[in-house]
Please model this.
Amino acid sequence: MSPSRSRNQHELDEEDYGPSRTQQRREALAVLVLAQQLVDLQPSRLAKLALPDDVRHEIDVTRRTPSHGAKKRQLAFLAKVMRRYGDDDFAAVRAELGENREKQRQENAAMHRLEAMRDRLIAEDEGALSELIAEHPQVDRQHLRSLVRQARIEKEVPNKPPRAYREIFQLLKDLAQKGDSAEG
Model:
């Protein structure tokens, strides 16, 4: 203890005043982010979450608010209503949103891989075709080669709808799903 400070002042310094103002602000912003995620969530997924009735009501009101400024104020009010509840009340909701985010990331990565394979097939990459046939021997090779040829023609001709291009993607997606179900 420094000689210039009194004993009472030192005792006050050691008392627990709770979370700092910075920590309170971080927590409030985290609740605001969660509120925005809930407002942006699809209604079917929102219905599956265990939320208090007043929070559900405020989410609906926020969604119906047309003006940007008013929506921002309503979102802040929703966060205020949510802060009335403890962290435990929204732990399951946070976990659900976190799991969905990871699952969505994995699905996006899988779609990007399929798109890359389709682009490799159309770019006259015979290695890609051989790789796909080796990976999925049950694929109809003749139909796949025909679709690749049609997609190349569609790419050359302006204003031609990319039907074969889409069909290749659907075929690759079906193959990937069959492969996943065979593994699981």
Summary: The radius of gyration is 28 Å. The domain at 22-92 is CATH 1.10.60 (Diphtheria Toxin Repressor; domain 2). The chain has nine helices and no strands. Residues 91-122 form the longest helix (32 residues).
